[in-house]
Structures are given as C-alpha cells and as structure tokens.
Amino acid sequence: KKKYNVVYLGAVEGFEVVTSVLNDCCDVTHVEAVVDKVASSLMEADALVDASMKVKITNSILEQAGNLKIVSCATTGSDHISREKALERGIKISTLKEDKELLQNLTPAAELSWALLMACARKLSGAYEHVKRGGWVREEFPGVMLNGKQLGLVGFGRIGGWMSKYAKAFGMKVIVYDPYVSSLPESVEAANLEDLFANSDFISIHVHLTEDTRDLVSSKLLSSIKKGAVLINTSRGDIVSQEGLLMGLKSGRISAAGLDVLQGEPDIDQSPLVQYCRENSNLIITPHIGGFSPDAVTLVCKRAAEKVKKCFSE
Ligand code: NAD
C-alpha cells in the first residue's frame, strides 16, 4: 500500500500527535523551520502540516513541490503562504479559522492573562524576589482583593469572553468596551472606553492589532485611568502607548501592569519597559508565552493532521 509523504513543521509535541493520526497511511518527517530544509523536503512531499508559520511558503517553494496536495495549517492564519501560487497549482490550503469549537476551547492566552492579573493584584513578582533574597516581611506586599472589584475588558471576543468568566468566579463586576459585539451576556455591562478606564480597578486588553487599535490605549487615555488601577496586555504591544504606561507606573497612578507583548518584540534590548521592569517589581513582563502550551499544540496539530487524512481519502 502506498504511503504518502508528509512534512511537519513545528514543535515536537505536535510531531508526535501528527504521526499518531497519520502513521497508518503516511511517512511523516519533522523538518526544522529553515527555508532551505523546508524547500528541499517539500520537493517530495504530498502534504505539509504547518504548526510554525516561521517559514514563508513562497512561490518558488510551491513551484518546486511537484506532489504537494495540501498545506494544513495548525493556526488560524495562513498569510505566510503564497495563496495565488497554491491556487494556480491546485494545492489546498486549510486553516483552523472555521474550527470555532476547537478555538473556543484553546484557553492558554486567557489563562496567562488571568495569571498576570492575579500576579499584579498580589505583588507576586516582588514577593518572590524578596524571599529569594532572604526576606520575610509581608507588610511590604499588601494584596488587593479581587472580590467586589471591577474588571474592564477592551475587546470581548474569545479571550475577553474567558476573562469575564474567570472574573465572575472571583466575584468581580465586569464592564466591556467592544463596539463590534452586538449583544452582551447579562452578566456584563457595556461601557465607552473613557468610562471603562476612569472606573475600572483592573483593565485587560483583548483586541487584534489593526490600524484602528494601534495606540488605542493612548497616553491621554492612560492619564485618565482610575488611580491605582492595574493594566494587563497580552494582545499586541503597539495597542498600548509605552510612554503613557511608563509615566503611569512611575507616578503610581497605575499601580501595576502585566504584559506578554511589547512594541518591537522580539528585539527588546532598547525597550524602556524592559529597562523599567529590571528595577521595579510593579511591572511583570513575559516573553509572548500566552498562546504557547504543549496542550494547545497537541489539540491544533491533531485537527490539522485529520484534515490531511481526509484530503487523502477524498
Ligand atoms: P477575537 O477575534 O476573538 O476577539 C477580538 C475582539 O476585539 C472582537 O470581539 C472584536 O469585536 C473586538 N474589537 C475589534 N476592534 C476593536 C476596537 N477598536 N475596540 C474594542 N474592541 C474591538 O480575538 P482573541 O482570540 O480574543 O484574541 C485577542 C488578542 O489576543 C489578539 O490580538 C491576539 O493576537 C492576541 N493573542 C495573543 C496571544 C499571546 O500569546 N499573547 C495568544 C493568542 C492571542
């Protein structure tokens, strides 16, 4: 029986699950995300399972991939693939965009956003460093109780929706600014952006970066934030003014912030926010780890591999 030749691009956890889905009908090769290696492996391949997006699948790569029938992306985006050339060559491109139920259950970015919020509320970063240095003085780390406080969510899509569920479980009131959502659940209230910033104890940003959302959280908006509020951003660095955020943190108007994304990342050597967080424990920064969890990788790769199998059986 002929075995199809499948190339897999991505983290090792994904490779294991792709192999387990396809091993009865395919030989699966794990290829490093290096342009030349991908190009030469695809010359003989029938399918590509792409969980990486790190290599641009260009016209020239697709031109040379004589047997390729499908590129199955374990992501929602496929901007890294030359669509026109794929269409011309009859290569199917599949993504997870339509897999709404699967996407809804991918929670690592929402969970990290909540972890940052709690870490800011309880000053975890500073307290942990304090104990590592031999300290044991709790008076230096007064915590904020979440119960009864207000969370303002900017963006009420997948991640914003999960954040509101977590907040409700912690006894918080939730208000939302999202002009594109037509109806909100009864448990949350709509607000305009200015009111949300002026009245919320915690504010978390969950919108995509577009020309409309670039600098949406501007210096001006940050200067009107409720005194002592906490700001969380796991969306994209360019949505929040870094000058405004720094000014707020330095003045104490913003009591703490948690970020998983930065302007200019991954080139962060010159980032004033990174420099600030080296000296101050009220800013926690993580290196864009929100969506990165082997559990999630396994789920998305399984679905992408199933699509390859279906394509071969059609
Ligand atoms: P989503 O598409 O489900 O929701 C986005 C919401 O933003 C939508 O409801 C939309 O109506 C709303 N919106 C659009 N423009 C707006 C505006 N101008 N003002 C207010 N709301 C607006 O997206 P999601 O899956 O919840 O993801 C949100 C963000 O999280 C994205 O930027 C994504 O890139 C980021 N993200 C980061 C990580 C990470 O690793 N840190 C992982 C996954 C997603």
Compose a concise summary of this entry.
The protein is an alpha/beta fold and 314 residues long.
Describe the protein.
With 314 residues, the protein is an alpha/beta fold. It contains 13 helices and twelve strands. The chain has helices spanning 12-22, 35-42, 59-64, 83-89, 100-104, 108-121, 124-132, 158-169, 193-199, 219-223, 242-251, 272-279, 294-313, and strands at 4-9, 26-31, 47-50, 70-73, 92-94, 150-154, 173-177, 188-190, 202-205, 229-233, 254-259, 283-285. The strands form two sheets. It has a seven-stranded parallel beta sheet, sandwiched between helices. α1 (12-22) packs parallel to α13 and α6 crosses α8 (158-169). The two termini are 17 Å apart. The protein binds nicotinamide-adenine-dinucleotide. Residues 109, 154-160, 177-181, 206-209, 212-213, 216, 234-236, 260-261, 288, 290-291 line the site of nicotinamide-adenine-dinucleotide.
Share of helix, binned: 25-40%
Shape: elongated
Mean pLDDT over the residues: 96
Question: Strand fraction band?
Answer: 15-25%
As a whole number of angstroms, the C-alpha radius of gyration is 23 Å
Structural class based on helices, strands and sheet pairing: alpha/beta
Which ions and ligands are bound to the chains?
nicotinamide-adenine-dinucleotide
> How many strand units?
12
How far apart are the first and last residues' alpha carbons, in Å? Answer: 17 Å
Order of strands, widest sheet? 8-7-6-9-10-11-12
Sheet having the most strands? 7 strands, parallel
Uncertain parts: none
Listing every helix as H and every strand as E from the N terminus to the C terminus, the arrangement reads EHEHEHEHEHHHEHEEHEHEHEHEH
Q: Helix segment count?
A: 13
